[in-house]
Amino acid sequence: MNDLLHILLYIQIGLCVFCLYRIIRGPSIADRMVGIDIFGILVVGICAILSIITGKTFIIDIGIAWIILSFIGTLTLAKYLGGKSLNE
Question: What pLDDT does residue 86 have?
Fold first, then answer.
């Protein structure tokens, strides 16, 4: 079981590299936004796997905080791309 979790962890880290490539080289802002969202989901998955491997539950809290900030950032960027100001 522990070996499988380590393999899954390395796969998640490899997928994060691909997402970073899409964030940097994305042809449009929408592609970069999707890359950032997927990167956030992968980070939460990494936090979950690390929490299981190490037995530390505070890592799940870090993942929850990350996904909340990612959600707020996505809403802000979508509102900006929609042409509205942030205080509307």
Answer: 66
What is the distance between the alpha carbons of residues 61 and 48, in angstroms, rounded to a whole number? Answer: 10
3-state secondary structure of 13: helix
Contact 40, 65 (CB under 8 A): no
Domain extents in the chain: 2-81
Measured CA to CA, the distance from residue 22 to residue 25 in angstroms comes to 5
Is the distance from CB of 8 to CB of 49 less than 8 angstroms?
yes
What pTM, to 2 d.p., does this model score?
0.83
CB atoms within 10 A of CB 76: 11
pLDDT tens digits for range 49-73: 999 999 999 999 999 999 999 889 8
87: amino acid identity, one letter: N
Q: Which DSSP string do the residues of 68-84 spell out, in sequence order?
A: HHHHHHHHHHHHHHTT-
